[in-house]
Amino acid sequence: MKLFERTRIGTLQLKNRIVLAPMGTTTDHTYGFNMRDVNYYGERAKGGAGLILTGAVVCSEEFEPAPCQKLTSIKDVYMLHQVAEKVHNYGAKFGIQLSPGIGRMNWIDPSTPPYSASPCPNYYKPELICRELPTDGVKRLVKAMGTSAKFAQDAGVDIIEIHAYGGYLIDQFNSSKWNHRTDEYGGSLENRMRFMMEIIEEVRRVCGKFYPIAVKMTLDSVDDPERPLEEGLHIAKTLAESGLVDLIHFGRGAYSCRWRMVSSVYQPPGFDVEAAKTIREVTGNVPLMAHGKLNHPEVAEEALQSGALDLIAIGHGLIADPYWPNKVKKGLLDEINPCIGCGECHYNSMKGWPRPCAVNPEAMHETEYVLTPVTEKKRILVIGAGPGGMKAAATAAQRGFDVTLWEKKNIMGGAMAAAGAPDFKKDVRDQVEYLIRQVNKYGVHVELNKTATLEEVQKFNPDFTVVASGCDPIIIPVPGKDKPIVKTAIPVMLGEETVGENVVVIGGGDVGCELASDLALKGKNVTIVEMLDRIMARGGSFVANEQNLKYILKHSGANIICSARLTEILDDGIKYIKENEEHILSCDTVIFAAGFRPDQTLYESICDAGLECIQIGDNVRMGKIIDAIHQGYNSMRVLEL
Ligand SMILES: Cc1cc2nc3c(=O)[nH]c(=O)nc-3n(C[C@H](O)[C@H](O)[C@H](O)COP(=O)(O)OP(=O)(O)OC[C@H]3O[C@@H](n4cnc5c(N)ncnc54)[C@H](O)[C@@H]3O)c2cc1C
Ligand SMILES: Cc1cc2nc3c(=O)[nH]c(=O)nc-3n(C[C@H](O)[C@H](O)[C@H](O)COP(=O)(O)O)c2cc1C
Ligand code: SF4
Q: Which of 161, 547, 549, 596 is deepest in the core (most CB within 10 A)?
């Protein structure tokens, strides 16, 4: 496969064309590199990637507090060197992504106006108007980038990627929208690019003629006028023609359409490959790299075979499974732990939590989380084959317990099977299939169509029970709630129940919006009725997914009625109150997507009977896949009987 061909970036030899995309996942309170980084990046090198890139690393704290790792002093070199050593041990090369800052995207200090190219609104708090970086400050940042690059080179870093991407500080200078300066760093595009070009020249000057330099840039912002394509093409052409850059890494999108930058669950595999042809026309022979769900081996291989790309960067896919390259090389595709696109990695990193992956609890805990084999094959009963139950069962069985999994339905997957049912959520479906394979691989005894009751559990007499029986849908207690036109979301999404042509979905949270989009895209006439004043008002998911779902919903043709309270279900419609007026909406199907609530009586009865038991996932409280999988994994990882 071309994926595994050796290649070069300038003078840098790589064993293959697979690159860990730059991702800020590992920042801790010291804002330096630490042992977690050594192990996290080391694991991804062990997994076979040819080049490991860190997430953004800032060169200075003069104008803004570090939002990520920093490389501002010789003291930061100590740990960085250890990361480099560990990565090198596996034959991979190691690079850092270097940044002068994030400017108007600052979220670390929400009360101080950040510095940017020009006075412009802070992204998160538009009432905070940025301060213009003074000209001598710009020059100091250029120097600081060179100093950091030198620290990196001395630490054993093989390549510097300049972070000129995504609407962060360098990109704010490049942009006609944000840069209105009147000094030599503003005005024409040539002047606006001066900051970026001086940085590249400075890094080249201090690190030498042969030191590899990459630049990550934004080609265009697709759904936003922030970066017009012509501007992006001109930037790319300038970089290529400068003769100073060994690799151009491009992306698309903007914060307003974040799913184009940091892939959402809804994006198709290889979504940026098409644009590679456009950029290639101006970048010529300079190696080109892109990202965007290239963790689908056939798509990544085709992107290389077709000549669209020279290297492929994988972000999420290598958090979820660091061994992706080695597994692809060996043809062990069924063994790949697939990313579900949930965005928890990004969401948690911005919250400052070291919990970067829903489907891979070991990410960032590489050496802490070890599954120790058990000496005695005690019997574990797991109730419920949702993600929590399946992960618990597979983990316990992997440790050597004798595990039985009861599922009351005739399929495994629980609510997650419904979550992965729409065509636009295939990533989730792939993970359900993977979990089923893991359950089978480790020899779990699975009994479908088996409903756990206290009596059944007592009869089975396990040494330990895991209750992972999930939640029940909330049915709003209005007159008519038991009429035949009423359904709930999960059976409809699973195709267990059919719907008519005119559908009302009660609830405009994530589930309601996905359901409505799915049905509308299949040609149904769908209306969401939401009590709050807007859809997805409760938040709680990563912004890329939220924005993308709203976009899909908008283009699906579904109707939305907010601030509307359901009062009755009729034989052929619903009644609701909006602005103190009663309305009737005709339909032939009403689907409740108004939330879920756990029934904990089974768990409580098992505890009351004196049996050893733990409760996980949605049965504790309605949560997310990350909660179910992490609780399933961790509870069985630490279990001692
Ligand atoms: C439509 C939809 C979309 C969603 N999308 C997302 C998403 O994109 N991202 C995300 O993070 N989360 C999503 N969620 C939430 C996520 O699916 C749940 O948080 C997760 O599935 C909870 O896992 P669990 O194992 O705890 O429970 P469940 O997945 O609910 O599994 C519980 C299982 O237990 C079985 N069971 C119940 N009682 C018994 C019994 N007595 N005996 C035997 N078996 C029993 C049930 O049949 C079920 O199979 C979505 C949920 C829905 C409904
Ligand atoms: C948790 C997380 C952090 C990220 N941090 C950075 C970053 O520091 N610099 C950067 O250029 N891109 C960053 N990205 C974007 C990725 O490099 C990559 O472009 C994006 O995830 C799309 O690739 P993928 O579909 O393979 O994940 C981040 C992405 C994630 C998921
Ligand atoms: S947290 Fe979710 S989106 Fe991020 S890598 Fe893991 S599965 Fe993928």
A: 161
